[in-house]
Design brief:
Strand order of the largest sheet: 4-5-6-7-8-9-10
CATH architecture: 4-Layer Sandwich
Shape: globular
CATH superfamily: Ribonuclease Z/Hydroxyacylglutathione hydrolase-like
Distance between the termini: 40 Å
Strand content: 15-25%
Number of helices: 9
Order of helices and strands: EHEEEEEEHEHHEHHEEEEEHEHH
Structural class: alpha/beta
Number of domains: 1
Largest sheet: 7 strands, mixed
Helix content: 25-40%
Bound molecules: zinc ion
CATH class: Alpha Beta
Length: 315
Amino acid sequence: MSLSITSSIRRSSPILPLLWVVLLLSPFTMNVSAQVSTQNGIGVGSPDNNNSPRDPDHLIDNIWWVGHDKVGSFLITTPEGHILMDTTSADEVHDVVENIVKAGFHLRDIKYIINTHAHGEHISGLATMKRLLPQAKIITSKDTATILASGDSRDTRSEGFEPVKVDGYIGDNEELTLGGVTLVAHLTPGHAKGVTTWGMKVKDSGKEYNVLFMGGLGTPTDPAEEGTLLNNEAYPEIVADFEKSFKLLRTLPCDVFMTYRALAINLDAKVAKLKQGGNQVNPFVDPQSCKAYLDLYEDRFTKQLAEEKKAPGAK
Ligand SMILES: [Zn+2]
């Protein structure tokens, strides 16, 4: 599927009071917990940042971080409208809305909402966002769409998730095009069904770079909640999917490493460096971190699988 759309963009004055009223009407909430530490120059483990609001950050070319201190939401701007990737949770979606406006963009110019994967901290704010952006089309992988429509709390790892109906599907290697910007969807399931890693090109200081928004690589470790790798009744293909996804991700060009965790992409350090200015290469151009992230998660997957196979009763 190749989608394209034309429209005009106008920046406008903030309309925050109205937005707050709409947001307060949203009845759904969720709890988020996570663990983080720093390894190999990328942030993973514990303790993580908290969910505090932060101002929007212009990262590179037409890409903005409009999420909060911990979980990302990316705004990809074009002359003909914008694309929003992930909306964060129902509790934090207001930060995203506020940041889009603070960054100087108008909500009505958002043409598409896309997602990395259907876990609550990234998508439980989607229903609220859709109410605010009735013109925006929600485009996801088919498996993500199924989870979003079901509102299944096990699949979304989110209590009280409000189901959402998408406007269109995107398949592996298909493109979403708007205003001269093309996002390529790469289906990389495993962390969840339907995980989508997105690729696009940006320019910085006259050079072109490949951006990769990694869609999620962590393995399930709680048998009572999301299950484990082996004998996962809710997701029997999980091991095969992870293996295929790691293989595919190794082949995708990645100069600019993006993912939905602020700590994982060292957001604060890179933004601080960016603000220093000068002739440096944009700090988000960081192919090393891309590789380190893949290495770390593939290693974890391999070790966990080996451990599970050794456990009594494994098959
Ligand atoms: Zn997730």
